[in-house]
Design a protein that fits this description.
Elements: H1 7-18, H2 25-32, H3 42-50, E1 59-63, H4 76-84, E2 89-94, E3 106-110, H5 116-126, E4 129-134, H6 140-150, E5 154-163, H7 184-193, H8 209-213, E6 214-220, E7 223-228
Parallel strand pairs: 1-2, 1-4, 2-3, 4-5
Antiparallel strand pairs: 5-7, 6-7
Helix pairs in contact: 1-2, 2-4, 5-6
């Protein structure tokens, strides 16, 4: 019976069911059936890392709306975020037109995540953003380009998420198993060192923007959460990246 419903009718039915389960990301994922809920329990991790935004007015941007070329397909995760974060404004980026998914508190933009001119225009329209989720091309070069450009726009206390990091190892997605290759995993593993930049015994070391503004990086199976804040706790041994004289 449900299979005979149109896309619009299925969406309306899902919206009605979601009203009864708006406090559970897992249940909302089952209702809207976004691809990220099928293989890995991402939503348990999302609940852990994003619960502080549950009742706040904030902006969430997701790269990758899903459904490939079809304008009406995909969009499930956008509605999951909208139902769970009752006061959040939800924005989505996709290389294909996904405007049919727009509704109150959901806005879409058409463009490539590797086009920084496009990303700049999107950020000018959104303003401050508190959560950014990359579920886009999953190519290492695109993931890194998007992060390097968008992370400075993220508000302090914000969270940046990279999904499906398994593609970091796949040649077909520009990935590699080599430790010195510029892949998603290698890039963020290198950033993890910056958490301790004040402990580097390197006089004259100049901290990068990421050194100074990343306070935590959480690596899980196929997903990374990066927390933004001021990373200037200081060292309890070194001063100005210099070890004390013996």
């Amino acid at each position: 019976m449900i299979s005979r419903l149109s896309q619009s009718q299925k969406r309306k039915l899902a919206n009605i069911l979601a009203c009864f389960f708006s406090n559970s990301l897992r249940n909302l994922a089952n209702i809207y059936n976004p691809s990220k809920g099928k293989c890995y329990d991402f939503f348990t991790l999302y609940t852990k890392h994003l619960k502080k935004f549950k009742y706040k007015r904030f902006n969430l941007l997701e790269i990758g709306i899903g459904g490939y070329e079809s304008p009406t397909s995909g969009g499930g995760s956008l509605r999951v975020w909208k139902k769970y974060f009752r006061f959040g404004r939800i924005f989505g980026i996709d290389i294909n037109d996904k405007s049919p998914h727009e509704e109150r508190r959901i806005t879409t933009f058409k463009g490539s995540q590797s086009n920084t001119t496009f990303l700049s225009d999107v950020m000018n329209k959104i303003g401050a953003v508190d959560v950014i989720i990359d579920d886009g091309s999953h190519r290492s070069d695109d993931v890194i380009t998007s992060f390097e450009f968008l992370f400075p726009f993220l508000s302090s206390g914000g969270v940046y998420v990279i999904e499906d990091t398994q593609t970091s190892y796949w040649n077909v997605c520009g990935g590699s198993m080599h430790k010195d290759a510029k892949t998603t995993m290698n890039f963020f593993k290198n950033l993890a060192d910056g958490l301790n930049h004040e402990e580097f015994p390197s006089p004259g070391y100049i901290a990068s923007y990421f050194d100074l503004n990343i306070i935590a990086i959480h690596f899980y199976h196929n997903i990374i959460f990066i927390e933004k804040g001021e990373n200037n706790k200081g060292s309890n041994v070194l001063k100005n990246n210099t070890l004390p004289s013996a």
